[in-house]
Every structure is written in C-alpha cells, then in structure tokens.
Automatic annotation (TrEMBL):
Gene Ontology molecular function terms on file: serine-type endopeptidase activity
Function: Protein with lectin and protease activity involved in the establishment of trypanosome infections in tsetse flies. Binds D-glucosamine and agglutinates bloodstream-form trypanosomes and rabbit red blood cells. Capable of inducing transformation of bloodstream-form trypanosomes into procyclic (midgut) forms in vitro.
Signal peptide: 1-17
Family of this protein: Belongs to the peptidase S1 family.
Keywords for the protein's UniProt record, in alphabetical order: Disulfide bond, Hydrolase, Protease, Serine protease, Signal
InterPro entries the UniProt entry points to: Peptidase_S1, Peptidase_S1_PA, Peptidase_S1_PA_chymotrypsin, Peptidase_S1A, Trypsin_dom
One GO-annotated biological process of the protein: proteolysis
Organism per entry: Glossina palpalis gambiensis
Name the UniProt record assigns to this protein: Lectizyme
Domain Peptidase S1, residue spans: 23-247
Length: 254
C-alpha cells in the first residue's frame, strides 16, 4: 500500500508540476534555480518532450552529449532556451543538423559529446547567454554546480534545478568497488556521487565551475543513489573538437 501511494504521488507531481518531492529525484540534494542564474542551459526536445539538456556555445550551436543524439533525426528535434521551464516560454528553435564526436563509443561512453546546429539564430538577452569552455580540467577537490531538469521518477521535472558536487580523482573514481574500474577514460571527469549524482533526463547537462563549462553529464548511477561517483565529459579534453566542429558548421563544411 505504501509503495502504491508513493507511485501515485510521483504521478501527481509529473502531471501537475508541483514542488512536492518524489522518490529518486534527479538531484537528491537539489535547489530550485532560475534561468537567469544558468542562462547557458537549454532543453533538448524530441517530438515536443524534454529528454536531454544542452549548453549554449553561440547563437547557432548547442553542446550536448553524443548519447543524446545517437539514433535521432534532426527533423524531430527542437531546442528550448531562455526559460526555467522546459515546456513553456523562452525560445523554441528547430534543429537543423548535428555532429557526434568521431571517437564516441556507445559501449564505453568515451567522447560522449556532440554539437547541434540550430535552424535559426538565438537572440541573446537577459536569461540567455553562451558560456566559455574550460581550457584545463577541473581541479580535484573543487566544487562545481550541475543543473538540469532531472527525472521525477519517469518524467522530467518542469522546474530547473541545481546541485553542488565535488570533483574527485580518476584514481578514486576507478577504485570504487564493483563499479567503473577501467571504464574511466581520459575524456571523462568524476564527481562525488554522495546523494548528488545526476539522473535520467540530465544527460548533456552542464557542470560549471569558475563561470566556465568544465563538464557535461554523461554516465553514472541512476537517480543519485550515492553508491558511486558520477561520470562527466571533461570539456577541456574535447574543447578543440568543439571549436573546430562549430567552425566547420559556420563554413558549411558539415
């Protein structure tokens, strides 16, 4: 009976978008935030429904996880920006094309990064702004903020939320019992998953430190169980590819 009540409560949250906490929310120790605090985030939508997050690089380019693009068709994809809600407000723009990193591996999630080219240019004003890319990997022990529309059980939250996490070493990350081991790749960065790991619907969500994009949500235990660190794309390791790909888009070489 208790289990049924919890499931029902979660369903009500999904339908009505209230602030009532549901079991296994995307960021367990989260706080509601406003788009003015994270103006670089965008909602990726497939057939009108949010399924991943992205990061604004410039007026035509959105950075996201390759795993969010694999098997998708640009004609069915849109991007909403400049709104704290994924389903209303801001700017909703059709996706024209996208490019997945050539070294992306679905099996290992190595180089889990891609670039979206928008059909029309974004208009920048308060509440929407690109973010600069980190040139160096985030320092171990440093604190970063991850934001997104994390899962409320089986649907995306309508509210934008954030959580603070701590960067941990690859050595510590790979030594977690019964977990990643050799799965930790040079293109990845680890964060402390103690009840703050990212969850379903957060792939492609930004990890920001020092006002720079340091990482993006890639792979990790579902729904912030706290059993293992979360794996993020290390933006410093793919920065050159991002910049070169955007340039090729602008020159119509892709």
């Amino acid at each position: 009976m208790i289990h049924k009540v919890i499931v029902l409560l979660a369903t009500v949250v999904c339908v009505w978008g209230t602030s009532v906490p549901a079991l296994n929310e995307g960021f367990v120790e989260f706080f509601d935030t406003n788009i003015s605090s994270v103006p670089y985030i965008a909602s990726l939508q497939f057939d009108g429904k949010h399924y991943c997050s992205g990061v604004i690089f410039d007026k035509h380019a959105i950075i996201t996880a390759a795993s969010c693009l694999r098997g998708r068709k640009a004609s069915n994809m849109t991007v909403r920006s400049a709104s704290s809600s994924w389903n209303i407000g801001g700017q909703l723009i059709q996706v024209a094309n996208f490019k997945i990193h050539e070294r992306y591996s679905p099996a290992s999630n190595d180089y889990d990064v891609g670039i979206i080219r928008l059909a029309t240019a974004l208009k920048f004003y308060p509440g929407i702004d690109p973010i600069s890319l980190a040139r160096k990997s985030a320092a171990v022990g440093g604190v970063a903020m991850v934001s997104g529309w994390g899962s409320l059980r089986d649907c995306a939250s309508k509210s934008l939320r954030s959580s603070y996490v701590t960067i941990v070493s690859r050595k510590k990350c790979s030594s977690v019992k019964d977990h990643y081991g050799r799965a930790i790749k040079p293109s990845m960065i680890c964060v402390d998953g103690m009840s703050r790991d990212a969850c379903e619907y957060d792939a492609g969500a930004p990890l920001v430190t020092g006002h720079l994009l340091a990482g993006m949500v890639s792979l990790g235990d579902a729904c912030a169980t706290g059993k293992s660190p979360g794996l993020f794309v290390d933006i410093a390791k793919v920065r050159e590819w991002i910049e070169e790909t955007v340039e090729k888009f602008e020159e119509h070489l892709i």
